[in-house]
Write a structure and sequence with these properties.
Elements: H1 12-22, E1 26-28, E2 35-37, H2 39-58, E3 62-63, E4 69-71, H3 72-75, H4 79-85, E5 90-94, E6 97-99, E7 107-109, E8 114-121, H5 126-136, E9 145-154, E10 168-178, H6 181-201, E11 208-211, E12 223-230, E13 236-246, H7 248-252, E14 256-258, E15 264-266, E16 268-275, H8 277-286, E17 303-307, H9 312-331, E18 336-338, H10 346-355, E19 360-364, H11 366-371, E20 373-378, E21 384-388, H12 392-417, E22 419-421, H13 425-434, E23 438-442, H14 447-457, E24 460-465, E25 473-474, E26 481-482, E27 485-489
Helix pairs in contact: 2-6
Length: 492
């Protein structure tokens, strides 16, 4: 199987696009800016979804589903949110087509089927959900309300890229209501930590937890918590956000509750979400010029076994041994595939599973049967070892854990080496152009300076790290006083 991938050093963007398609993750559809997620790609998303869903439920959340369409007047109720998403909205104006009398076989919009009120195709669901919560919340006994939904949303992006930015994408969005400000803030922070836990322990991606600046904050939020990751090309990727909404949506939709003294109060809200953009992060963090590299905790197939044979007799002998091995793997919940296709040669299979990022490949031929051994290859390092048959299951169980740990450590080392402190604008620009990564620099705290740096360098403030130390300094752009460093980067 010929991979023919553009290398990362040649053209990182082209490498990414080719890899997503050739590894059978996704492809562009017939609808501009939309994608088809193929079975192998969707299997990875399903594993992500399953783990996140478990984590949400362990923290007390329940799943529900809300409509795709939002009446325009409802969408406009929270002004900042509406303004923030206005340019990305798709709008339904009519509900019927009819035959075009001037063009036989073609359809046209029926002018008599105009909607009384236009419908927004949800870019996010705060409006429809908070309008619903008004009927669900009357008393403090109804709180907290901890709801999540798995859904699709539409944001009419002009420039799209598979998984990273598409007009329609899959995600989850949590929406919670609380009796106190402190409880809502605690929820916002908790979900940021859940996302970080998932990214680091399942995706093997180290992330920086932080706060967005007011400029970068979610429209309608009082605070946005985020996790930021670093890709191999030195660009940052926002991997998840959690928003403290204050009482903004409660006031917009009149969501009140009677407290223990019987007094009416507005509830406090949060929203939080991650999307199929995580698929892009997974590809870009670990993969190489040979194809995907998947962390075992999210790989749909953790072990693939390839037989090497010339005769039917050899194939049957190998299959007898392998089928027993497959059952042993299944008993300890290791996902395994025996690639017993007779239509492809071993070399083709090796290349295919390497491209698809299967963490461990086992090869077995007639000599292996004689010697009581298997050849085991790691996808992440491309190294091979010969392992005795009687210890193979435990060896691979431990190996999968090692690969998971090693992938995280490799990504962490890369990020550590790509966080650079600078104290001048010239140094900032030099690092940005020649090294990339996160740049830790002083900023005077003003939106005006933030915008000027962005216009000049194309770098944005990715976050104000939660663990940053207090450190007096001077803004790299204005020279004004600063009390701590923030992280800048070019980003996806």
């Amino acid at each position: 199987m010929s991979k023919n991938l553009t290398t990362r050093t040649e053209d990182y963007s082209k490498w990414y696009n080719e890899l997503v398609v050739k590894a059978d993750l996704a492809e562009n559809s017939g609808v501009r800016g939309c994608m088809v997620i193929k079975p192998y790609g969707y299997a990875i998303w399903e594993k992500m979804q399953a783990e996140l869903d478990r984590m949400f439920k362990e923290t007390g959340h329940s799943n529900a589903y809300f409509p795709l369409f939002v009446p325009k007047s409802m969408f406009e109720a929270e002004e900042k949110n509406a303004e923030g998403f206005a340019k990305e909205c798709a709008i339904v104006t009519h509900y019927r087509l009819k035959n075009d009398p001037d063009k036989p076989g073609k359809l046209m919009v029926d002018p008599n089927a105009k909607l009384e009120e236009e419908l927004i195709v949800r870019p996010t669901s705060e409006a429809i959900i908070w309008s619903t919560y008004k009927g669900w919340v009357q008393s403090y006994r109804d709180l907290p309300l901890l709801i999540n939904q798995w859904a699709n949303v539409v944001r009419w992006e002009m420039r799209t890229r598979l998984f990273l930015r598409t007009a329609e994408f899959l995600w989850q969005e949590g929406h919670t209501a609380h009796a106190t400000k402190a409880e809502a803030i605690e929820e916002s922070e908790k979900m940021m930590h859940v996302y970080a836990d998932f990214a680091q322990n399942f995706m093997a991606i180290p992330v920086i937890k932080g706060l967005k600046t007011e400029t970068e904050r979610f429209a309608g939020a009082e605070e946005t918590y985020c996790i930021e990751a670093l890709m191999q090309d030195g660009k940052a990727l926002q991997a998840g956000t959690s928003h403290f909404l204050g009482q903004n949506f409660a006031k917009a939709f009149d969501v009140k509750f009677a407290n223990q003294e019987g007094k009416q109060e507005y509830v406090w809200g949060t929203s939080w979400g991650v999307s199929t953009r995580l698929m892009g992060a997974l590809v870009m963090t670990h993969s190489d010029d040979n194809g995907l590299v998947l962390p075992p905790n999210l790989a749909p197939i953790q072990v693939v076994i390839v037989p090497i044979f010339k005769t039917d007799e050899e194939f049957n002998s190998i299959s007898t041994v392998v089928n027993e091995l497959v059952e042993q793997f299944k008993k300890i919940n290791i996902s395994v595939k025996y690639d017993n296709r007779t239509t492809q040669k071993p070399g083709f299979k090796f290349a295919e599973w390497e491209l698809k990022g299967v963490p461990v490949r086992v090869a077995v031929g007639p000599k292996d049967l004689e010697n009581g051994t298997f050849e085991v290859a790691r996808r992440d390092t491309l190294s091979k070892e010969v392992i005795a048959k009687n210890g193979i299951v435990n060896y691979i169980k431990d190996l999968l854990e090692t690969i998971q740990t090693d992938l995280f450590q490799k990504a962490l080392d890369f990020r550590t080496n790509h966080i650079t402190e600078v104290d001048s604008l010239e140094e900032f620009k030099t690092i940005l152009e020649n090294k990339g990564g996160f740049i830790s620099a002083h900023w005077d705290g003003s939106a005006e300076t933030e915008e000027k740096i962005k216009d000049l360098t194309k770098a944005t403030i990715r976050c104000i790290p939660l663990n940053r130390k207090k450190e007096e300094g001077k803004c790299i752009f204005t020279g004004a006083k600063s009390t701590g460093r923030v992280l800048f980067a070019k980003a996806y």
